Amino acid sequence: KNEVEQSPQNLTAQEGEFITINCSYSVGISALHWLQQHPGGGIVSLFMLSSGKKKHGRLIATINIQEKHSSLHITASHPRDSAVYICAAPTGNQFYFGTGTSLTVIP
Amino acid sequence: EAQVTQNPRYLITVTGKKLTVTCSQNMNHEYMSWYRQDPGLGLRQIYYSMNVEVTDKGDVPEGYKVSRKEKRNFPLILESPSPNQTSLYFCASSGDRIFSPLHFGNGTRLTVT
User: What is the reported pLDDT for B37?
Assistant: First the structure.
């Protein structure tokens, strides 16, 4: 049983397309994190959100805590957005992670 | 520069030879944690620490030890590594694990033969 589920697992898009990655969780949380992992392996934090919507450049994250669902949107996608996107749910003192969405943006 | 420093980046060892992966942060964070990442399984938490001398098991603690003698350091110890511990390991820290970002080290790719 996975506490955090992501979809899709893999995604290929043409440059300029609007992209949506979904994250659903079964654990009770107060906030959710979105992470980005580039092909070199390093992981960076993109967003932490507890309600509503956050925007950073072309990235937008939304969350509905009651429905236990979050989405990450990328507008006007670019090849440099190619990476693995991971959602993470902190519950108690631990983190539970989705298995990631591998995004490839083709020029 | 605020960072989490993890060493080494790559490590190849043999079954049973004790090893330590170091992790240090310069952000005065109380929360530190270790994860392993395996294909198809994603990131899984090994151990975490809420503060100095306070550590607890995550989801996959078997075969690992940690210590938190100082706030900045959180080493991961494999006393008798086995091939099933071959994985990509990440250390991370956070000022507040829920409402603050996680800062990750660059990862350690461990191969146990």
Answer: 96
**Cross-strand partners of A91:** A94
Residues of chain B with pLDDT under 70: none
What's the gap in Å between the CA of A106 and the closest CA on chain B?
23
Nearest CB neighbour to B43, from listed A45, A86, A90:
A86
pLDDT in tens, B55-66: 999 999 999 999
For B101, the closest of A42, A45, A97 (CB atoms) is: A45
A90 → closest Cβ in B43, B90, B97: B97
A90 shares contact with chain B (CB less than 8 Å): yes
The CB density around residue A4, as the number of other CB atoms within 10 Å, is: 24
Taking the C-alpha atoms of residue A82 and residue B107, their distance in angstroms, rounded to an integer, is: 19
CA–CA separation, A72 and A19 (whole Å): 8
Q: CB distance B99–A48 less than 8 Å?
A: yes
Measured between beta carbons, which residues in chain B are less than 8 angstroms from residue A100? 42
pLDDT tens digits along A18-74: 999 999 998 888 889 999 999 877 999 999 998 999 999 999 999 998 899 999 999
Alpha-carbon gap, residue A48 to A31, rounded angstroms: 7
